[in-house]
Description:
Blueprint: H1 3-16, H2 23-30, H3 34-46, E1 51-54, E2 58-61, H4 74-90, H5 93-109, H6 115-119, H7 138-147, E3 149-156, E4 162-174, E5 179-185, E6 190-195, E7 199-208, H8 213-228
Antiparallel strand pairs: 1-2, 3-4, 3-7, 4-5, 5-6
Helix pairs in contact: 2-3, 4-5
Amino acid sequence: MRRADRLLQLIQILRRHRRPVTGDVMAHELEVSLRTVYRDISTLITDGVPIRGEAGVGYVLGEGYDLPPLMFTTDELEAVMLGLRWVMRRGDVDLSRAAQDTVAKIGTVLPERLRPFLFDAALLVPPRYAHVLDKIDVALFRSAIREGKKVSLNYRAEEGAETSRVIWPIAVSYFDAQRIIIGWCELRQGFRSFRTDRMLAMDVLKDKYPERRKVLLKRWQEEVRKETGQPQLDVFT
Length: 237
């Protein structure tokens, strides 16, 4: 790998992580010595790249820094296309359309030699044979999550009991056949997961929930880890 390419890749590694990345981790990925990583970090800092940290602790890339537009590699294009194809088949109507628009936008900036790796990628996503239809618009939940707003919900449990609740939606989980909304339930005073195909009606309220979504999501993840030993989703009614 050329040194210029290695420096760009080093920045990419730092962009990928939110927490400090140790020199050993970067050296292993770049397949170079630890001494080379430290020398490259020093070079980037001298060139004005806002990298903070120290040897033995780790390094982070300062906020607000970005690279000029870089061209995709063939592996990156296939990864992007695989993800977008999955969203086209599994996402709600608006999300599926956004995925199609994204493919078109990427295709317009790719050089001719790389377009086949996007449009003719050999990585396929099977159709949803067990697709369950929703009675509500999942896009409204995505909007409520972005704005941190409460949602009023009429819900039918698996055994048929119907309840009315107010929840604080914090995430949408996309499974092969259905989607699940994760949120804090005011009725149960705890985190619950709700299948969208069991929702009878929903309404995004004007009120915002009092806690930050990231804080709630972290609390939910910690609860799941304690209960199951791994970050997985359970459907609660």
